[in-house]
Amino acid sequence: MSYLSMRRGDDRSLTITATEDLTGSDVAFTAKRRRRDADADAVITKTTGAGIVIGNPGTTAEVAIDAADTDGLDDVPVALYWDVEVIDSADKRRTVATGRLGILPDISRGS
């Protein structure tokens, strides 16, 4: 489990280390307020080609968090639960990383 943090409303690239090589895989990042929340209730979702780039070495993923992903969170600080899953060609999923993402208050609010 890994703890990451960022400021609300910031653009940020999170480096995630997985338990296996992600090269050539479809990868999904999901962050939620509660683990049991439905995926439709996720605060942040990213996928390979839409916010996730597999790094070098292939056991890392760069997850691009856009300012808009957290700008609407008015009840900060908040700690989200996140995971990274590999989705294979048969739509089978394997969790390869988990953790918490702390969203901290910001001072400057963009124009």
Might you state the CATH topology name? Immunoglobulin-like
Round the Cα radius of gyration to an integer and report it.
Answer: 14 Å
Mean pLDDT, all residues: 93
Please write the string of helix (H) and strand (E) elements: EEEEEEHEE
Number of strands: 8
Please state how the strands of the largest beta sheet are arranged side by side: 1-8-7-3-4-5-6-2
SSE topology sketch:
Blueprint: E1 2-7, E2 12-17, E3 26-32, E4 44-48, E5 51-54, E6 60-65, H1 67-71, E7 78-87, E8 93-104
Description of the structure:
- With 111 residues, this protein is mainly beta.
- The protein has one domain (2-104): Immunoglobulins (Immunoglobulin-like), CATH 2.60.40.10.
- It is built from one helix and eight strands.
- It has one helix at residues 67-71; strands at 2-7, 12-17, 26-32, 44-48, 51-54, 60-65, 78-87, 93-104.
- The chain has an eight-stranded mixed sheet with strand order 1-8-7-3-4-5-6-2.
- A hairpin with a 5-residue loop joins strand 7 (78-87) and strand 8 (93-104).
- The longest helix has 5 residues, at 67-71.
- The relative contact order is 0.33.
- The mean pLDDT is 93.
Descriptive tags:
Immunoglobulin-like, mainly beta, 8 strands, single chain, 111 residues, eight-stranded mixed beta sheet, 1 helix
Short structural summary:
The chain contains one helix and eight strands, in the order E-E-E-E-E-E-H-E-E.
